[in-house]
C-alpha cells in the first residue's frame, strides 16, 4: 500500500523584523486603521466615576501591549468583598460598614472602635485562644456596624464568617426534627456546621422568648465552639444580666472566659444622623 502523498506545506509568511505593527495587527485580524491598538497609543486609561483613572493597558520594554480587564480595580475588590460578605450572611444594610466609616462622637464609641479593630487585626491570636466578644446596648448604637467591620476584616484574612440571629440557629436545629430522612441533616450535623465557622456572629440574642428549649440549642452551639476553641461574637440589645439570663449561666461563662465585653451605652445614632452616611464627606 502506497503511503499517502505528503501534502505540500501551506505557505506561511516569515515574520520579518521589518513587519510594521499594522501588518501584524492585520494578520491577527485587527483593524490596523484603528490607531487605538497601536503601541504608541498605550497605556490607556479609563475613568471610574468613584475612584478616578485606572489603566486598562500597559506597554512593556519590548513594546508588547498587555490589556487588563477594563474594570476599575477598586470597584472589583469591593465587589469581591461584597460577595464574601453575602456568603457570610451579613445583612445587606451593613455590607458597606467598615472601621473607616464608623462615626465617633463620644469616648465610648472610640473605645468600641479601638477594641473591635484590635479584635479584627489580631484575629489569628483570638482564634487560637477562642476569644469571644460580646457587644451589647440599645439598637442603633453601631453594634452591627462594628460587627460587620470585624467580619469584613476576618474574611479578608481568608477565614470563614457567619452572621446569624439566635432565632436562625434555633430554627435551623428544630428544622431537623421535622425532616428526618435520607439526605437531611441531623441535629448534630447542624450544630457542627455552626461550630466549624471561623467566626460565628450571633445577633439578636435575647429577642426571642428564651425558653429552656431555645437555651439548650444555643448552649450546644456555643459549647461546641468553646470546646473547639473557636471565637463567637454575641450582639444583643439586652444588658449583661439580660444576656446571661437568656443564654443561661453555662453558655455565658464560656463566652466570658477569655473574652471581651463592650457596652454600647450612648444615645442611638439612628435618631439624629442618617445611618451609614459617609463620615469622610
Ligand atoms: Zn471604581
Total of helices: 11
**SSE series:** HEEEEHHHEHEHHEHEHHEH
Distance between the termini: 85 Å
Order of strands in the sheet with most strands? 6-7-8-5-9
Main beta sheet: 5 strands, parallel
Low-confidence stretches: 1-9, 271-281
CATH class of one domain: Alpha Beta
CATH structural fold name of one domain: Rossmann fold
CATH homologous superfamily descriptor of one domain: P-loop containing nucleotide triphosphate hydrolases
Assign an overall shape: elongated
Gyration radius over CA: 28 Å
Strand content: 5-15%
Q: Give the integer mean of the pLDDT values.
A: 82
Helix content: 40-55%
Name the structural class.
Answer: alpha/beta
Count of beta strands? 9
Plain-language structure description:
The protein is an alpha/beta fold. It has a domain at 91-270: Rossmann fold (3-Layer(aba) Sandwich). Helices cover 42% and strands 14% of the residues. The protein is built from eleven helices and nine strands. It has helices at residues 21-27, 73-87, 107-121, 123-129, 143-156, 166-178, 187-196, 212-227, 240-247, 249-256, 269-272; strands at residues 45-48, 52-55, 57-59, 65-67, 133-137, 161-165, 199-203, 232-236, 260-264. Residues 1-9 and 271-281 have low confidence and may be disordered. The structure holds zinc ion. Zinc ion binds next to helix 2.
Amino acid at each position: 500500500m502506497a503511503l499517502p502523498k505528503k501534502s505540500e506545506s501551506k505557505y506561511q509568511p516569515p515574520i520579518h523584523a521589518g513587519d510594521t505593527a499594522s501588518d501584524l495587527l492585520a494578520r491577527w485580524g485587527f483593524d490596523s486603521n484603528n490607531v487605538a491598538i497601536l503601541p504608541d497609543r498605550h497605556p490607556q486609561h479609563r475613568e471610574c466615576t468613584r475612584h478616578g483613572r485606572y489603566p486598562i493597558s500597559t506597554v512593556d520594554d519590548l513594546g508588547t501591549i498587555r490589556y487588563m480587564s477594563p474594570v476599575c480595580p477598586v470597584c472589583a475588590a469591593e465587589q469581591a468583598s461584597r460577595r464574601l460578605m453575602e456568603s457570610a450572611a451579613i445583612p445587606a444594610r451593613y455590607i458597606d460598614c467598615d472601621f473607616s466609616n464608623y462615626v465617633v462622637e463620644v469616648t465610648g464609641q472610640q473605645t468600641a472602635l479601638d477594641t473591635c479593630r484590635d479584635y479584627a487585626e489580631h484575629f489569628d491570636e483570638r482564634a487560637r485562644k477562642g476569644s469571644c466578644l460580646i457587644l451589647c446596648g440599645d439598637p442603633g448604637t453601631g453594634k452591627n456596624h462594628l460587627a460587620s467591620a470585624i467580619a469584613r476584616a476576618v474574611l479578608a484574612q481568608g477565614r470563614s464568617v457567619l452572621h446569624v440571629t439566635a432565632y436562625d440557629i434555633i430554627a435551623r436545629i428544630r428544622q431537623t426534627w421535622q425532616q428526618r430522612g435520607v439526605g437531611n441533616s441531623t441535629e448534630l450535623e447542624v450544630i457542627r456546621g455552626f461550630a466549624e465557622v471561623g467566626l460565628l456572629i450571633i445577633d439578636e440574642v435575647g429577642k426571642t422568648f428564651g425558653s429552656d428549649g431555645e437555651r439548650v440549642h444555643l448552649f450546644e452551639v456555643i459549647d461546641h465552639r468553646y470546646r473547639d476553641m473557636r471565637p463567637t461574637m454575641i450582639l444583643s440589645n439586652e444588658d449583661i444580666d439580660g444576656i446571661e439570663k437568656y443564654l443561661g449561666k453555662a453558655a455565658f461563662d464560656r463566652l466570658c472566659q477569655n473574652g471581651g465585653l463592650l457596652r454600647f451605652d450612648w444615645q442611638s445614632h439612628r435618631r439624629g444622623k442618617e445611618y451609614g452616611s459617609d463620615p469622610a464627606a
